[in-house]
Structures are given as structure tokens and as C-alpha cells.
Design a protein that fits this description.
By secondary structure, the protein is an alpha+beta fold. The protein has helices at 23-33, 51-61, 65-77, 79-86, 94-102, 108-118, 154-162, 166-170, and strands at 13-20, 39-48, 120-121, 127-132, 141-143, 148-151, 173-180, 186-189, 202-205, 210-227, 230-244.
Length: 245
């Protein structure tokens, strides 16, 4: 069964610079909200309407917690996302919990079995993010040999690319913007609220999904990455548009 389409950028995200509030602005804040923030919006820096724009933006700035908070709120309000989650089991199957909490120590067979048993696939046009290194080396088209993790949030995907020095060792980052095209590979949508790793906003697709790169752009050459016990270094970061089937 097809899952509903969820678009976290159906309403655009706006990134603003901030400045300190004037005395009159603080009085107005107190009247309107009952407390003083001490700052106000100053200048609109980015207006993000699409997943691709969001990936390019986060690849450029590195972090924006307000963007992640925006996506959290969009998911909490989205009826399609609520329906998507309602189509999942009320309790996460143990094999899928182990995948999330013990990665990379998990059973590929057990994870694939549980996802296939649930039996839901993503709708045409669904877009998600994945951060890491393109797993196909020099090939633009690959079939995945194991389950593949995706997120509704580009910042989460970027942090996963940096996790445990992965980007440091790879010498680059590929931030994938994944678009579903006639996919028949089943997926599992992890719970967000009340879950230990709900901040991941994760969707897991079973093995044998096919990925095809449509376009790739280098965003910057000097993205700073780190690894425990080593000095930081800079690597190139790319945003790749990828079809997933």
C-alpha cells in the first residue's frame, strides 16, 4: 500500500538574521506575549520552498537549528504524516529498533523481513534526505545491498554524514536529495514523538532499492569536518539530486 505524500516545505521556511530589540520593541513583546525575548528579526536571508533549496542552504551554512525545529513542527501538524505513521505498527519491531540504536551492528535479513512484512511503499514524488558518501563510487546508478536510511530533515542527514568521522575519512560529503520514482521497495517510518531517536525523523527503505543520480553540484570546498583525536580539516560538500525506485 502506498503511503501518503508528505511535503515539509509545503509552507516555506524563512531564515532571518537577528538584532537586539529596542526598548520600545521589548515593551511590545511584553504586551503581546507576556515576556521579553530581547531580539527581533532583522533581515530575511533565505526563503526555502523546496527540498533541493533546503539541502543547498544547510550545506552552505552547516547548521540551522531553527530549520530543524520548523520541520519538526511541520511534521507534527501534517495530517499526511499522521496518516503515514498510523499505517505503521503501534510498536516498533525489535529488529528495527536494533537497527536504529545499534547501527552498524544489526541483521540485514531481520530488518528486511520486518519492513517487507509491514508492506508499505512511498508515494511517487516523495522527497527525503541522506548524508554520507555516494555509495556507487564512479557509477551514477546502483542497487543497494542493504537497508538505506533517509530523513525528512537535511540537517539530520548532514550530521549523520559527519558521525564518527565518516566525512573526515571519506574526504568529502554528498548530501542526497532523494525523489521517489515508481518505487516498489517497502519502507518503515520511525516514530518521531516520544521516541529515543525521534529527532532522526527517519524513514528506512529495505535492501535492493535503486538509486540514480540526476545532477550534482559542489556547494563549497572548505566544509569543516572533525574526527576524535585528529585535527579538523576541510572537505568539499556536494548536493546530489537522486531518483530512488
Amino acid at each position: 500500500m502506498r503511503l501518503p505524500l508528505v511535503d515539509v516545505f509545503k509552507s516555506p521556511y524563512e531564515a532571518w538574521s537577528m538584532r537586539g530589540a529596542t526598548e520600545s520593541e521589548m515593551r511590545q513583546q511584553l504586551r503581546e506575549s507576556g515576556h521579553i525575548l530581547g531580539w527581533v528579526r532583522d533581515r530575511l536571508q533565505e526563503r526555502i520552498n523546496t527540498h533541493y533549496e533546503a539541502a543547498c542552504y544547510i550545506a552552505s551554512v552547516g547548521a540551522d537549528n531553527a530549520l530543524e525545529g520548523f520541520i519538526d513542527r511541520q511534521l507534527q501538524r501534517c495530517e499526511s504524516y499522521k496518516s503515514m505513521r498510523a499505517m505503521m505498527p503501534s510498536r516498533t519491531p525489535p529488529a528495527l529498533s536494533r537497527f536504529q540504536q545499534r547501527y552498524p551492528n544489526y541483521s540485514v535479513c531481520d530488518v528486511d523481513y520486518e519492513i517487507s512484512r509491514i508492506g508499505h511503499t512511498l508515494s511517487e514524488g516523495q522527497q527525503l534526505f541522506h548524508g554520507g558518501v555516494w555509495p556507487g563510487a564512479d557509477s551514477a546508478d546502483i542497487s543497494l545491498a542493504k537497508p538505506f536510511s533517509m530523513s525528512f530533515c537535511p540537517q539530520v542527514a548532514l550530521r549523520n554524514a559527519e558521525w564518527r568521522g565518516k566525512a573526515y575519512d571519506a574526504g568529502q560529503i554528498n548530501l542526497l536529495v532523494l525523489r521517489v520514482v515508481r518505487s516498489s521497495t517497502p519502507v518503515f517510518v520511525f516514530r518521531q514523538r516520544g521516541a529515543k531517536m525521534g529527532n532522526e525523523k527517519e524513514v528506512l527503505i529495505a535492501s535492493h532499492a535503486n538509486l540514480s543520480v540526476r545532477a550534482s553540484i559542489r556547494i563549497k570546498d572548505d566544509y569543516v569536518v572533525g574526527k576524535y583525536g585528529f585535527a579538523d580539516k576541510t572537505v568539499p560538500i556536494y548536493v546530489c539530486e537522486v531518483d530512488i525506485t
